Amino acid sequence: MKLTLSSEELAVLFTHISLMKKSIKKGFKKTYKGDWEEKYTDYLSVIKVLEDLMKNEEIEQDFYDISLAAEKFTMLHSFINFYVNELNKKENNKDKLKHETIKLMAILESIQMKTNKLAAS
C-alpha cells in the first residue's frame, strides 16, 4: 500500500512512532503474549522504512510516498489510530492547549485520516 505524506507529516510520524517503541513493546507483550515478537518486528520495520526514507532523500521533497506491505500498513494504521485517540483523551482534560500542541494534533489527525482512507479502500 502506498501512503503519501508531507515532509512535515513524515517528520512528526517518525518522531512519535520512534518515541513510543518502549511503550509499544510492553503493550505488545501484554496483549499478544507469545506472538508479540512478530508484531513488534513489524512495528520496528515501519520505523525503519520511515527512517530510510528520511535519510536517503538527497533533495528534500514536499511529499513522500511510503510503500508498505499490507501487514505493515495495518500496523501503522492501528498505531496512529490508537495514538491519536490517546492524545485526544489527554488533551481534552486540559483547559488550554498550547499552540504547538494544537498544530501537532492537526498533523497527527491528518495522518490518521490518510491511513483511514487508505485502509477503507
Strand content: 5-15%
pLDDT < 50 stretches: none
**Radius of gyration, in angstroms, nearest whole number:** 15 Å
Q: How many domains is the backbone divided into?
A: 1
How many extended strands? 2
Structural class computed from helices and strand pairing: mainly alpha
Main sheet: which strands, in order across? Answer: 1-2
Overall 3D form: globular
Summed up, the helix count is: 5
Major sheet summary line = 2 strands, antiparallel
Percent helix range: over 70%
Give the topology string: H per helix, E per strand.
Answer: EHHHEHH
Q: Mean pLDDT across all residues, rounded?
A: 87
**Gap between N and C termini, in Å?**
10 Å
Give a structural overview.
By secondary structure, this protein is mainly alpha-helical. It has one domain. It is built from 5 helices and 2 strands, in the order E-H-H-H-E-H-H. It has helices at 7-19, 21-32, 36-56, 70-92, 99-120, and strands at 2-6, 63-67. The chain has a two-stranded antiparallel ribbon. Helix 1 (7-19) crosses helix 5 (99-120), helix 2 runs antiparallel to helix 3 (36-56) and helix 3 packs across helix 4.
